[in-house]
């Protein structure tokens, strides 16, 4: 997404020091700077302000900073903010509002399978829509904002993986992303020490479906009781997927070949679709059924989405 440094400064209630300039996307890693990006120095175990000069040399056109002394020493185009990490979140919240009203945001969470499901959703939708998704597992309070900020303004669907380490984190990401569709893959014993056990994991993951409004869709794994129970927590329309007889999008056939790649058939409210996975394991096929459910609620051609899943890696 392209914008002017002064526009972003105004949106953040911040001060631009130096010349106004065009910005095209953002990054918090000085080693991954693309021309004209905004560099966001995160202050953690290492202070990202130490890498601003490297980012500018690599082509960054502007940077955030919470340190006036650094700005005075380095120069360039700087947006002065009290906290760079918080400003990154606020910048993404502002950027989310710049997309067309018709832009759909698909949030994906779960203890396992969320990265694969995110990638399969992006593959399923790509033949019909202009899709942007998080790279790798950029699913936290830095990764999700830069995904939004780097998406072209013409993006029609944002597929955003959402991770959590404790209560409130997914809810916070949802205030930035404002998802229309929420997909929950599975609840398992991950990060239990932060949330008091597996039921706490379910509660933290349910923040995604709780953030959906009545016009949205909660797409839930019918084969996980804790995920199914989330339907009582959302005002959105609920679609379930899996092998359970009660699943709305039901995998009726899953035959593994000698490489453990599955040939899959699903029945759904929108008809039947069949495809063959290009990657091994039955659980990958299960994740793909979740992706087909997203295509279905968006009104896309189910077989076309299935064919795209078949070709994805």
Largest β sheet strand count, sense and barrel closure: 9 strands, mixed
- Largest beta sheet: what is the strand line-up? 9-10-8-11-12-13-14-15-16
Shape: elongated
Stretches where pLDDT falls below 50 for ≥5 residues? none
Radius of gyration in whole Å, from Cα?
21 Å
> In DSSP terms, counting alpha (H) and pi (I) runs of 4 or more, how many helices?
13
DSSP strand count: 16
Tell me the helix content: 25-40%
Please state the structural category.
Answer: alpha/beta
Order of helices and strands: EHEEEEHEHEHEHEHEHEHHHEHEEEEHH
In whole angstroms, the N-to-C terminal distance is 27 Å
Provide mean pLDDT, rounded: 96
Which percent band covers the strand fraction? 15-25%
In short:
It is built from 13 helices and 16 strands.
Which secondary structure elements does this structure contain, and how are they paired or packed?
Blueprint: E1 2-4, H1 5-12, E2 15-17, E3 22-24, E4 26-27, E5 38-39, H2 52-57, E6 62-65, H3 68-74, E7 78-80, H4 84-96, E8 104-109, H5 114-125, E9 131-133, H6 143-150, E10 157-161, H7 169-177, E11 181-184, H8 192-195, H9 198-205, H10 207-210, E12 217-221, H11 225-228, E13 237-242, E14 249-256, E15 261-268, E16 271-280, H12 282-297, H13 302-311
Parallel strand pairs: 4-5, 5-6, 6-7, 8-10, 8-11, 9-10, 11-12, 12-13, 13-14
Antiparallel strand pairs: 1-3, 2-7, 14-15, 15-16
Helix pairs in contact: 4-6, 5-12, 5-13, 12-13
């Amino acid at each position: 997404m392209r914008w002017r440094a002064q526009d972003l400064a105004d949106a953040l209630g911040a001060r631009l020091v130096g010349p106004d300039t065009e910005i095209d996307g953002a990054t918090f890693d000085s080693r991954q700077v693309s021309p004209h990006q905004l560099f966001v120095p995160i202050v953690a175990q290492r202070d990202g302000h130490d890498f601003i000069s490297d980012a500018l040399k690599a082509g960054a056109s502007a940077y955030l900073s919470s340190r006036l002394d650094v700005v005075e020493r380095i120069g360039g185009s700087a947006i002065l903010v009290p906290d760079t990490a918080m400003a990154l979140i606020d910048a993404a919240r502002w950027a989310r509002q710049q997309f067309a009203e018709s832009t759909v945001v698909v949030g994906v969470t779960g203890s396992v399978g969320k990265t694969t499901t995110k990638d399969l959703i992006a593959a399923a939708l790509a033949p019909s829509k202009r899709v942007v998704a998080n790279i790798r597992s950029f699913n936290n309070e830095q990764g999700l904002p830069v995904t939004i900020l780097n998406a072209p303004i013409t993006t029609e669907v944002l597929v955003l993986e959402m991770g959590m380490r404790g209560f409130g984190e997914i809810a916070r990401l949802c205030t930035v992303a404002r998802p229309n569709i929420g997909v929950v893959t599975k609840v398992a014993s991950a990060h239990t020490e932060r949330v008091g056990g597996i039921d706490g994991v379910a509660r933290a993951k349910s923040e995604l479906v709780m953030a959906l409004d009545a016009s949205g869709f909660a797409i839930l794994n019918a084969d996980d009781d804790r995920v199914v129970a989330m339907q009582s927590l959302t005002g959105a329309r609920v679609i379930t997927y899996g092998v359970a007889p009660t699943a709305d999008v039901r995998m009726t056939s899953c035959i593994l070949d000698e490489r453990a790649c599955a040939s899959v058939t699903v029945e759904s409210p929108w008809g039947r679709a069949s495809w063959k996975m290009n990657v091994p394991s039955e659980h990958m096929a299960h994740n793909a059924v979740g992706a087909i459910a997203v295509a279905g609620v968006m009104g896309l051609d189910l077989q076309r989405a299935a064919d795209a899943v078949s070709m994805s890696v």
